[in-house]
## 1
Amino acid sequence: MIRIWRFMIMSIKYNWQHPDWPKFTYQSDGLNKIIDEYTKISSNLQGQVSQLDQDNKSEAYIFLIVEEAINTSEIEGENLNREEVRSSVARYLDLDLSQPKGIFHKEIGIASLLIDVRKNFTSELSKEMICNWHKLLLTGQDSYYARREIEIGEYRTGPVDIVSGSGEYEEVVFEGPPGDIVESEMSKFIDWYNSTSHLNDNSEYISGPVRSAIAHMWFTSIHPFGDGNGRIARAISEHALFQDFDIPPLFSISTPINENRNDYYKMLAESSRIDASVDLTNWIKWFTEITKNAQVNAKNKIDFILKKSIFWDHHKQAKLNKRQHKITSKFFEFGTSGLIKTGINSEKYQSMTGCSSATATRDLKGLVEKAILVPSQSGGRSLRYFINLIEEKPVFNIFQKGHDKNLAEVSLNKLLDDIVRNINFHQVQNKQLDNLIDKYKAFANGEQVHLEKLDNILSQLHGNGSKLI
């Protein structure tokens, strides 16, 4: 018996072969701090989202789903058509009635998967749901996967290997468990997943980031499908994170993973091999840091969407020709990357619009005169033009003295509501709050009844009843 046991230990290579599988363990030292930071950022992000109007909220929702679709596919080496992904997402949300002008199975598939994950974030995980996600992901690709003998929407029944390199340099880095035990392994995984959700009253609750990390490693270790396991795993990770919220939060977990793709694959490999046993401490710490970064990225993207909204509102009266409008829109197409970062020159303007050199010069000059673009300090051939973002915008228009008294009351109440929202969100004094206070006091025109309302609200911020007016 002893000799057999020693032989088994020497032949074990992967975590699913470990005698303690799947009883994962981890050390909480240093983890609680990351989770606390994640929770704080989550709360701030949810507060920020709650202040968006419906148009900006819809745009943020679409934008971040597109980011998730693009990045989760890039991790697997697939480059998607961004415009078609966006159109597919918008169509699934009933925000776009256009039809695709071509065959975009991969774009449609990943968009439908991510939408379904968000629609079902309050539902328990099941085999049917996971297999349906696999069908959605690989929609329209039946003939391709039939040639590879891969069943779409069905657990695999044969072996599966993960390899790196190619040709003579190809190396097997992971082997999934035999196909005949995939069904039972997935059943254990699903039972654990549902029992650890806070949606289950009888659950042994595990915080979202930790549960998401374990779910990701467990699912990829089983590798239940012939293809698409990475994308489904990241979808399940998002589903696990979403279940800690009342509404699906706005962030893309695959964006920071893609930015750290080499580390991601390294951590997955290290944690799935036997030398890591079933201890997931390093993996969970790395993954929870990623979830925190995902929310920071989302906050920056929402800030950008607000800047875009402010920009177009500021220039809503500007008369632009089709070329100028196209180029201005292109600046916002890829977020803070692309033209926002690099700017545009005359040659680029010509190639994007198909106009002549003289027309490009005239159009660009017109955009500068309208304060839409600003030229770089360097001239000549190095001259580039950058979008002129509006850094600040009054929340409400302040009417001059002498206007209708009812209108003044409405404006004051709106300002007061905005001050309350700011205090509830930030909980500390900030520049935006100072600006709102100044506007309110200016419009109150010294009337004590209005100043007292402001004083009562500001005393809540300081807790000690101190007055700022």
## 2
Amino acid sequence: MNTVAGVRDLGVYVHVPFCSVRCGYCDFNTYAPGEVEGATREGYVEAALREMELARTAMPGDARAARTVFFGGGTPTMLDSSALIALLDGVRGTWGLSADAEVTTEANPDSVTKESLRALARAGFTRVSLGMQSAVPHVLTTLDRTHNPANVERAVAAAREAGLKVSLDLIYGTPGESLADWRASLESVLALEPDHVSAYALVIEPGTRMGAQLRRGEVEPTDPDVQAEMYELADTLLSEAGYSWYEVSNWAREPADRCRHNMAYWRSQDWWGVGPGAHSYLGPHRRPDGTEAPARRWWNVKHPRAYAARLAAGESPEAEGEELAGDDLRLEQVMLRLRLSEGIPAELVEGRGEAVAKLIADGVLDGAAAVRGTLRLTRRGRLLADLAVRALAF
């Protein structure tokens, strides 16, 4: 498959659906030991490699090498480093890796060692994204996190020693977390001087254990106004320390420290998702027969056992898919790209001048940038990004 004008990058996402425990707030497609009868880590690796072989036949004529690879989950480092390396070798064999490829794995601070990180770095991994979440013990307990704050410092030191870039992931707005708790977590992050920081507002989903606790009145949700204060505090402290926001929930020291894989999502580049429940996306493209194809998104069956069974039978693990064209495709681009500091070209929402004017008047969009033809969120606008997208919908 050939891309239009060959302008889009190709990334690969590898979903590893295993965790040591299921955190109470998590609604991702992950499984703790004993939750998935008949599905093993060894079987998962075999199935994922088979899906890569299938991808080779599904993308005829596409000679692009992967520019980014992201191992997410779950906790990818629940697999031995040798298994992660085998999966990365599978990516190399299927698509190839560009000379400057960014290769990231997520990890829990207590799921890596000096030895495992060295092995990953030698094999071509370039980044590790550590799920720190908080530096405050009672907040970690509420989140069901298994590590203690000291594990984070050890993991960061080990990653740096291995030559890996380091991202620290935080969650704010946990029930019982005060503004002072959140400040303590931010100060702990800054003391470790990571290359990249992500900070996400906790959303308590109905189907999670924390959702059930909320229904029973066992926990109280954090006031949205307090969450907004927490975001503003994060942006202030990180900015003062030399980090720049480049996406609503992400900050980096330098442009080179931004997560290129996630940037590809927000910029509607192409990616193939490997693993149970993984999503894939290919933008408008030209088929081998010369005809034009619309953008397409698809996703795999979620259960690891069903995923492995399909691939063992030589079948596609795809569960469902959809095509995107016209206004649907344009709306998705607005929804994703507006979250970036670079903003979107004003012509992308041509005909929505009244909505744009109101968003500028309300302090959601940067008026000076709009005059120059770019719609860009203000800091207030970052807190109201979903509202901005709805207002600009067409």
## 3
Amino acid sequence: MSTCKITKSFVDKLVLPEKGQVFYRDSELKGFAVRVTTGGSKAFVLEKRINRKLKRITLGRYPEITVEMARKEALKYLGEIATGIDPIAKRQQAQAEQMTLWQVWQDYRRIKSYLKDKTYVQYEMYLNGELEDWKNKRLVDITKDMISTRHGRLLKSHSPSYANTAMRILSAIYKFAKDQYEDNNGLSLFPHNPVDRLGQIKAWAKEPRRQTVIKPKQFERWYKELQEMKFNTGAESHHVVADYLLFLLLTGLRKNEGATLTWSNVDLEEGTIYIPDTKNKEPLTLPLSDVLVGILNYRLRFKTNEYVFSSRKAKYLAHPEQALKHLCETSDIKFTFHDLRRTFITVAESLDISSYAIKRLVNHKNGSDVTEGYIINNHDRLRAPMQRITDFFKENCKINMDDYVSR
């Protein structure tokens, strides 16, 4: 780095380097310099040790900023540094404070691109819905009082679950900002999460856990109307959804786990299915009972693509809600997709199947149960419990195996 007095005429005469960049240090003001790049850029900088580390602050590009302006800016920064202020951190904080909720969300989505699509859809549903008036607010302008007021308002207009979810989404965005945006000293530019107020004042709403299941006395009627929907409504989607709903009931799978099951993950010779993408991120291999094998053999006759429960529009059964609504109306039994999973677990418990086997069948994590950690439940050991559960449904639903025999 060359040392000389930096003036307008000196900067005008500077020759561009053949490669990289060159610095010319001012002989009068220590740390003041001009940087010249091979691309033709000339910029004023200040180099100074801050917190024992040599830092470089860009003051501005020439000729947008004059030598005199740059020198005054350098003196201002030197004054701040002398009084213990880190001007780089100060500048970063000022820039961060201009970020809006929507801008941080865009960074969240870009950086956390590995999340499931439905997560992004849910976040934007709230950000474009009940939180829309906050989208263009600076993150630093959303206060604890605003959070508690909005949460209270949502509790009056929506369910406790809805209100809590809206706040959890905001909290997740703030936690992301806290971890993502740091100054040059590694300190968070967003250290405070205003959503913490709800925990501090114990304002989170209680969300009653759903307990709905299909009752044993309803099984026969439910299955009868399921078959009626499958063969007599004339809707192609109903034919697929009927098998899909029974499949969920007999496996305890979550809605999307069943809907996205591919033929490549079905082993009819081994009598298993493999679910690679589960809620708890732990892949699941399930043994197949006789009815499940029958359903899969039956669906194989109508194979159109790689999905077991296929759809012409979305390839897999992405939107079975209308068929479920139809079955609820015709059977006069109100249930959800997750109620089928809850019914499966309830029946398994009623058959005195061990809690360890049930947890493996429905892919619940072991938690802190030390004993369970020593028990190895492979799919062969789960085959008998799975068949017992199916046998219960066969008897109570009056399932006719002839309906699933390949012909």
## 4
Amino acid sequence: MSNSKIIIQNGIIVTLNSNMEIIENGTIVIEGNKIIAVGTNDCLGEQFDKSDYKVIDAKGHIVMPGLVDLHFHSAIGRGYGDNLPLYEYLMQLWYPMIRALTPEDAYWAALCSYSEAIRSGTTCVNDMWRQMESCGQAAIDIGMRAVLSNDVAIPEERLDTLEDNLLLYNNMHGKAEGRIEVYIGIEWLPLASKDLLKEVSKMANELKTGIHIHLNESLSEVEICKEKFGRRPTELAYDCGILGKNTVAAHCVWLSDKEIALMAATGTSISHNPSSNAKLGNGIARVPEMLAKNINVGFGHDAAECNNSRDMFEVIKWASLIHKANRVDVSLMPAEDVLRMATQNSAKALKHNTGSIEVGKLADIILIDTKNEHYVPLVLGEDTNIYAHLVYSSCGADVVTSIINGEVVMENRILTKIDQYQVMEKANTAFNRILSKIR
């Protein structure tokens, strides 16, 4: 267990607790990987011998829970093959690239992916890709909290198998003081069979772990499933035992009323990925209807190939604005709700004790520098505009310090456990090596 002892003092603590409490001139005390005290400087200032702690002065900084990226693909081909529809992109570029992926390529690509995520405020990723043991090692090395799953498909697709995912579970689940977890992944239903889906459900139940799956991302996926299985994607997933409280369903853009009801009835969590869905021309998910049915909805960036950014603050802004514009209703997706979705809801989907700053929670915390124009004017108190600033004005580059599991993994914009410049160089080399194989 981490033996770190940290005091964060003088900050503006955006707790995102049940009362949405904001503490001015606040102090957070961390021991090991847990928050043990939260309050004002006056209340906590003399209770702890600071000589025993690493002291972080957060004056002029917002201190808040780290963001949870609920649908994440480590990736390496950003900006390559833009402007292709989803199906064509997958067949022409994505699948050829990930079939060519070596363990070394995956390690550097994942390190680069996690580096960008941490540097923009993400403290946990729900990552589905290939060569996942390499991704797990990257997460261990950089300090990321990661839930890993394989790109499982039927054998003729030459992606991952259930046996690959079981091996990953046996080798990686619970590593790094529990920071690393393993779910069972399903690439998407056009590359699955009913038997495979039933086997995934059985394995997840036997291992008492979760499932990560793409569902109803595009209209073409819906039509392929209707033709292949005679069912819409989420209907088929329900028939095969895939939906449930331990399942994260990504995208869910084209859910029917019946499918929304199935999600609600089974307690399935949904990852809303608005900027990826927009860039790929897949549409806008019916999030207001999902929330009306009390479905737990969090956010993901998807992959740098279909988003070109891993900045979750950008995703948060999209998630608020796109529904206001689409429904011509400014009341939808208010800033406070959107922040909770990016933290509490996404953490709840993964059964993590994170997502708010409270005693007993895991110490996944970020510090945001307000000493720039993004935060002028900064109003605290009853009429605070701090939530609006965080959703509509912030960007990942405003994050200066990140703590994951009680460990400082970025300080003053510098990653503490890896050489980020070496990682970028190695990731570039890996991409060119992959590209030479698929041309």
